[in-house]
User: What shape does this take?
Amino acid sequence: MAEALRSGDVSSRELVAETLERAETWQPVTNAFSQVFADEALARAAEADAAIARGESGPLLGVPVAVKELFDVRARENSGCCAAYRGHISDRDAEMVVRLRDAGAVIVGKTNQHELAAGATNLVSACGATHNPWDPALITGGSSGGSGAAVASGVVPIALGSDTGGSIRMPSSFCGCWGLKPTTGRLSTSGMMPMAASLDCPGPMTASAEDLELAWRVMTGATERIAPATPGRIVVLRGWFSQADPQQLAAVGAAAATLESLGATVTEQEVDGLDDIIPVWRGVAWAELADAHGDLLETAPELVSPPIRRSLDQGSGYTTEERSNARRRAEEIAELFAGYLADADTLLAPTTPFPAPRADVEAVEIAPGRDIDVHRGGPAWFTEPFNLAGLPVVAAPAWVSRDGLPLSFSLIGARNGDEQVIALALMLEARDERFRARVAPRPEGMEAIESPLGGGT
Assistant: This one.
């Protein structure tokens, strides 16, 4: 889009008008957006076209993007998709929104999320449940499910998400797009409604690895492009990370084989001792969730959904000792992965234990007699360890399952190794079409939307 705008092949107004039309068409299917800024977006597009005509430039000048509900957008509501925060109007832009605007992006709206970002399904939201564009009966994953659905349905090429326990990577896995959970603390959370302050990370969700690299440069302020690269040492995580659908494990194997063909040294590592990962994560995250939003239990309990009230209650009930023990255990987990990365450039694992499950199922069988729950933290088995460790992770698409659903694997780097995992993502995308995201097919009965760039829907 940016290249077509610079060359004059298309106007920003055309792109934004198409985006708004596509958003309107997909909204009854996915409920991906919590707010759409149609008039403002078209006005911003006109300003971008005038700027381009004057010879001005910007990496995203005139390109339509979306941001998750919990980011402050000046003069717009930030409810965190919680009814208790309805009517809260932001008086400024979040830092990451400022970066997008400075790059010339046109923000077309805010995306739906799991209430207060405290869930893995995106079924619990004051804005209504989101639905997967590949099949509306499936979950998108949460809490950035609206951003995942907006990218996967081809509405926008880039959407901001946030990741505290996998909230970028789970929707990226279930919806089939690219997503980056950056090194914790690498990007500013200023103007972002907190979920768990010590774990929260803003990050991009995109239609390609190239878009991921571009979004990363915009969000960090970097000017030097990241080049595709293959690291020398890859370690495939087994043990705990082998508890997955065989098709997800096959996606990891395909990525490892491709990297080996490119010259990487690939070994395996058994990972044990993570059986307590969900209670440890909750010991940190729910406690901090209660610090941020626990007053709602007193001031507006009827405006908080029952699942979120339970999480707030649990977080409020942790003793000082229990909080300290959870934090200490998180440090041990960080040391565990730091040890693995002492002998590796990148770790490789499934992003989620299974492809997107149906919203109405309680558990998914990954092997005979072995089930993983859907609604009580199961989708986050493989994501939460890296939040506790603070590591950068790219969730990468890996073609589709036998049922035609997206598969995904994760590239995990050392602290502040964000550029390295992005470089590896670029290499995989360029090397093999299996590692290229696809736009979800139109639901039956949906009219085709022709793009002003050509190429059909």
Q: What stands out?
A: The chain has a mean pLDDT of 96. The chain has one domain: 2-280+311-435.
